[in-house]
UniProtKB/TrEMBL annotation:
<dbReference type="InterPro" id="IPR057240">
    <property type="entry name" value="ParB_dimer_C"/>
</dbReference>
<dbReference type="GO" id="GO:0007059">
    <property type="term" value="P:chromosome segregation"/>
</dbReference>
<dbReference type="Pfam" id="PF02195">
    <property type="entry name" value="ParB_N"/>
</dbReference>
<keyword id="KW-0159">Chromosome partition</keyword>
<dbReference type="Pfam" id="PF17762">
    <property type="entry name" value="HTH_ParB"/>
</dbReference>
<dbReference type="GO" id="GO:0045881">
    <property type="term" value="P:positive regulation of sporulation resulting in formation of a cellular spore"/>
</dbReference>
<dbReference type="InterPro" id="IPR003115">
    <property type="entry name" value="ParB_N"/>
</dbReference>
<protein>
    <submittedName>
        <fullName>Chromosome partitioning protein ParB</fullName>
    </submittedName>
</protein>
<dbReference type="InterPro" id="IPR041468">
    <property type="entry name" value="HTH_ParB/Spo0J"/>
</dbReference>
<dbReference type="InterPro" id="IPR004437">
    <property type="entry name" value="ParB/RepB/Spo0J"/>
</dbReference>
<dbReference type="InterPro" id="IPR050336">
    <property type="entry name" value="Chromosome_partition/occlusion"/>
</dbReference>
<dbReference type="GO" id="GO:0003677">
    <property type="term" value="F:DNA binding"/>
</dbReference>
<dbReference type="GO" id="GO:0005694">
    <property type="term" value="C:chromosome"/>
</dbReference>
<feature type="domain" description="ParB-like N-terminal">
    <location>
        <begin position="42"/>
        <end position="132"/>
    </location>
</feature>
<comment type="similarity">
    <text>Belongs to the ParB family.</text>
</comment>
<keyword id="KW-0238">DNA-binding</keyword>
<dbReference type="Pfam" id="PF23552">
    <property type="entry name" value="ParB_C"/>
</dbReference>
Length: 301
């Protein structure tokens, strides 16, 4: 990538808007006069605008969209959308598709817009970066945006981090989520588990065991800290609980589940160790003679 191109792509959205320029609307055949302000703001007919084919986001909350449309009816378009001219009299959205859709719902015939020049790659990069800045994106949507910026825009992770104001570690943590099984990614996307849960799971190399831990999170509503502890025990193989890592993943999960039930039943942390030949032991610790007698009473011995 040339230095000139890097400079063009790397100035950020603020520079993008400041550098917007009005186009020759008489040549474009537009039926509304541009406002000719220093910022290059123009009123563009809604039916002359088409959506961005590189838009990484396809789902828009219909309730939130209607709320925005209601606001636009009262307040108008507060933040202009950004367009590029693709041919005479035809424009394509660079950023602001949600505002565009809401404006249509509100019945607007024209929409306040910035106009600038951009090629397809710049379109993709600007659309992705704008989406990343949104607060309502889930971790998987952000990870997919990062992946596309690296794969399709040729950005290195260090370069990407500087563009979006994140360090390389943060970018890498998001992109690693895309290595998780699809079932887990969907759960992150739908906010059934958090990014913290997912980051803990990904430290386990075995996919079957990842899914077993995921199911345990859902079934027992485990906290992130609890999952991190579980993963450490499985990874480090410490104590009797660590023995479970050599078992079949589903068997290990079942032993963990039984172990949890026994711990609740006896009121103390019960440990179960078992090998693939069904040999092992159950350990019930006690801290005093009274505690020992309490456990014996539970056992009815």
């Amino acid at each position: 990538m040339s230095q000139k191109r890097k400079n063009a792509l790397g100035r950020g959205l603020g520079a993008l808007l400041e550098d917007s320029k009005a186009v020759n609307f008489s040549k474009a055949g537009i039926d509304a006069e541009p406002l000719n302000t220093p910022m290059g703001i123009n009123e563009i007919a809604v039916d002359q605008i088409e959506v961005n084919p590189f838009q990484p986001r396809t789902d828009f909350d219909p309730v939130a969209l209607q709320e925005l449309a209601d606001s636009i009816k009262v307040q108008g378009i507060i933040q202009p959308i950004t367009l590029r001219e693709v041919e005479a009299g035809r424009f394509q959205i660079i950023s602001g598709e949600r505002r565009y859709q809401a404006a249509q719902l509100a019945g607007l015939k024209h929409i306040t817009s910035y106009i600038r020049q951009a090629n397809d790659q710049q379109m993709l990069e600007m659309a992705l970066i704008e989406n990343i800045q949104r607060e309502d994106l889930n971790a998987i949507e952000i990870a997919l945006c990062y992946q596309r910026l690296v794969a399709e825009c040729g950005l290195k992770q260090e370069e990407l981090g500087s563009r979006i104001g994140k360090n390389r570690t943060t970018v890498n943590n998001y992109m690693r989520l895309l290595k998780l099984p699809p079932e887990v990614q969907v759960a992150v996307r739908d906010r059934k588990i958090s990014m913290g849960h997912a980051r803990a799971i990904i430290n386990i190399d075995n996919i079957d065991l990842q899914l077993s831990i995921f199911k345990k999170i859902i079934a027992e509503d485990l906290s992130v800290r609890k999952v991190e502890q579980l993963v450490r025990e499985l990874a480090n193989g410490k104590g009797a609980e660590g023995k479970a890592k050599s078992l079949d993943p589903e068997r290990a999960y079942q032993i963990k589940r039984i172990q949890s039930r026994l711990s609740s039943h006896f009121g103390t942390k019960v440990a179960i160790a078992s090998d693939d030949k069904d040999k092992g032991f159950i350990k019930i610790p006690f801290v005093s003679a009274e505690d020992f007698n309490r456990i014996m009473d539970i056992l009815d011995l």
